[in-house]
């Protein structure tokens, strides 16, 4: 069984380009920032070339959203959506502020593609967030649409008051969960296969970075005709939008969950190799998935991008608990391009194998030689959180803050 792990808090250093966010709320809540700005297109229409659309689909996980059968999203003309976040005396005061911060982060990251206004009365809201004790202790938050026919009548997110061990939620845990649940509430009903993205379904509790893949997926969703929405689109609005099939046909990839024999598919381009890799991975045929991922890596033009693909293969094997294969891929990733991300991979493997002491020793060695390795700090903090070593956790956070200035863990 797959573990709830933290591989996704290791932020991508290339393909998962981050947008510049300076997100603040006028309260005492924690402030979260996204840095390393790269320009991407947020919004696609029929005036754009097929080449642009194809590139966006390849560098997103729109296909996984489309696999769910229906596109459920809000009518863009009704933004800003009204958001209610419960002000509960039963939870720490920062809970509400952190969730509101997550909404603002999506708004800033999307460059205004999605916008929100906060309201104090749930009856006035399109989106409602509550803090309640639930039977689902494996997840911090859960989202559900209320749909009547083909109309969205409400969107509700419920966050657990405490974690699985009965402790108050760490602000980073809650913020990361809020980012993912808000993503679902915006229409990203599918999951990303990439460990770097906010919408990766496993272990996203400590991923506080919205990636370019997350944003491109969101933009594509709002570039197609929805099957379910809150306000019907006008004829003019519909004429400006694609159908799902028009988007997917730009790839011409003969691969889907309904493809009976993947071995008969002849891959002649990167998009087909990637689609095959993802489908083999979904079917738990990891050796075949790795072969297709390797073909993707070979098509990359720079060492960093190649290394990231091998990192992805390593994590695939980790999720499958095939540790020897994970180690082999980790070695290839590091040999291809040794960087802060690949340096932490052996420690991450030990963490998966429940060798926390070994992982801790490796991370401390890494930080001794490279005190600026954010990924090592994050994994070390995760280990201390799980062991409830509060003194060591706080000391590590202070050390990183002192070393890296205004960067946050």
Would you mind describing this structure in some detail?
With 409 residues, the chain is an alpha/beta fold. It folds into 2 domains: 8-246, Collagenase (Catalytic Domain), CATH 3.40.390.10; 252-404, Tetratricopeptide repeat domain (Serine Threonine Protein Phosphatase 5, Tetratricopeptide repeat). Helices cover 43% and strands 9% of the residues. It is built from 16 helices and 7 strands. A 5-stranded mixed β-sheet has the order 4-3-5-7-6, with helices on one face. The protein has a two-stranded antiparallel sheet with strand order 1-2. Helix 13 (345-352) runs antiparallel to helix 14 and helix 14 (356-369) runs antiparallel to helix 15. The model is unreliable at 1-41 and 405-409 (pLDDT under 50).
